[in-house]
């Protein structure tokens, strides 16, 4: 058995970062930008007003001062003239500040009669002018690689980029294995259960920018597994679920091996998720990276968060790093941990973390309630309430 850290390193060694493609901005959220972007112009391109009010010369803006309004500057339509002493220009938020003006007085600080405005006492400090380029300057670089969040898409739009170069999406083939499985919506026999983790993992992988594809369920026969692996030949990553342990019907490792899979490791010192395996499929089957997940539904999902998520990020050109941990106080004590890294399902509230009493790796209802996996390193001593512990947000 190898450690979680060693398993992650071995997985990263199997990743071959994918090529790139250009997508319209509307499709860019959640993708990994792979080429630097340079701003074509300053933003804002002119000194602009931050408020609705009147543009004047700053030194003249004193309580009770009076000005004659000589025109208007609106967003998209500037005032072309110059503001001279004793003059003001009506101005709106986002409008270019006219030449000569160095301050905007809020309209709340003004009384107006016809073309004459009088400033109130007191006045706020001002100047309510955003300098040109305060957001970004022409030539500023937005650096890749970067996972594009909605705010990043907004910034790229502001930089006048209608398209962006992103990583190709990793194609992931998901193979469930087991005679007991039926698909959701089918009519299960008395000894059958419904395949669940396939769908949980597909959903998780989509949030990670991948293009997962659920293949037909492979039965516990060599022929069925072989044909599933053949169907997965065009994938970048083949993920099997179940059949990874030591039972007579756990055939995934054997069949993949017979098809030329070069195994990188089998079994990780973690709980749940111990019977994890990884390797590279034979060249005949496309040479894709392969991860064999344990069948227990919680084990498969935990391995998805701990291993598949960082792997899918690395495929898309992001740094090869473990899934980022957060920290929060523990609300109820935990016993000392055993020899395996334990990912404990926990309720996450604003006050902190509370591990669920049952950590049985078959119980999805508890995973669904959990907002966190508390990470307990091998042989961690008992933890008291109030201790700050690391966790994986899920
Ligand atoms: N003698 C030993 N037995 C087991 C060991 C061991 O070390 N020695 N390890 C246990 C651990 S830990 C795990 S985890 C399981 C994993 O076994 P497999 O990967 O071979 O998984 P299966 O036996 O195929 O299935 C386990 C369990 O999960 C259900 N399952 C499978 N696929 C799905 C799916 N797509 N959706 C929902 N549920 C699924 C399956 O019906 C079983 O109930 O092995 C322990 N045994
Ligand atoms: O590792 Mo198994 O995944 O403990 O249930």
Automatic annotation (TrEMBL):
Pathway membership, UniProt: Cofactor biosynthesis; molybdopterin biosynthesis
UniProt KW Zinc-finger keyword: no
Stretches assigned to the MoaB/Mog domain: 173-314
Reaction(s) catalysed by this chain's protein: adenylyl-molybdopterin + molybdate = Mo-molybdopterin + AMP + H(+)
Cofactor(s) the record lists: Mg(2+)
GO CC aspect terms: cytosol
Name the UniProt record assigns to this protein: Molybdopterin molybdenumtransferase
Originating organism: Pseudooceanicola marinus
């Amino acid at each position: 058995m190898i450690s979680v850290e060693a398993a992650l390193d071995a997985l990263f060694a199997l990743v071959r970062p994918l090529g790139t493609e250009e997508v319209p901005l509307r499709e860019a959220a959640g993708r990994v930008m792979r080429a630097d972007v340079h701003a074509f112009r300053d933003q804002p391109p002119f000194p602009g007003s931050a408020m609705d009010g009147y543009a004047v010369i700053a030194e003249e803006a004193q309580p009770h001062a009076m000005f004659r309004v000589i025109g208007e500057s609106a967003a998209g339509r500037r005032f072309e003239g110059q503001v001279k002493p004793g003059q003001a220009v009506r101005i709106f938020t986002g409008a270019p500040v006219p030449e000569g003006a160095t301050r905007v007085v809020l309209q709340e600080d003004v009384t107006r009669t016809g073309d004459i405005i009088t400033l109130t006492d007191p006045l706020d400090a001002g100047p309510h002018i955003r300098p040109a380029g305060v957001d970004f300057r022409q030539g500023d670089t937005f650096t890749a690689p970067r996972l594009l969040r909605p705010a990043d898409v907004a910034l790229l739009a502001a930089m006048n980029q209608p398209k962006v170069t992103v990583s190709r999406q990793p194609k992931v083939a998901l193979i469930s294995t087991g005679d007991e499985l039926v698909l959701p919506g089918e009519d299960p026999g008395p000894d059958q259960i419904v395949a669940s983790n396939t769908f949980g993992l597909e959903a998780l992988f989509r949030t990670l920018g991948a293009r997962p594809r659920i293949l037909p369920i492979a039965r516990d026969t060599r022929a069925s597994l072989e044909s599933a692996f053949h169907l997965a030949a065009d994938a970048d990553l083949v993920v099997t679920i179940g059949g990874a342990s030591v039972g007579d019907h756990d055939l995934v490792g054997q069949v993949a091996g017979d098809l030329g899979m070069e195994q990188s490791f089998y079994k990780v010192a973690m709980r749940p998720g111990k019977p994890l395996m990884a390797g590279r499929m034979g060249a005949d089957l496309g040479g894709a990276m392969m991860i064999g997940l344990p069948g227990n539904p919680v084990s498969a999902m935990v391995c998805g968060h701990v291993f598949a998520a960082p792997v899918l990020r690395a495929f898309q050109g992001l740094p090869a790093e473990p899934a980022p941990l957060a920290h929060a106080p523990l609300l109820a004590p935990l016993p000392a941990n055993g020899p395996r890294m334990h990912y404990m399902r926990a309720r996450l509230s604003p006050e902190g973390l509370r591990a669920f009493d049952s950590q049985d790796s078959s119980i999805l209802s508890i995973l669904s309630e959990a907002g966190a996996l508390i990470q307990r390193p091998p042989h961690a001593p008992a933890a008291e309430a109030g201790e700050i512990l690391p966790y994986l947000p899920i």
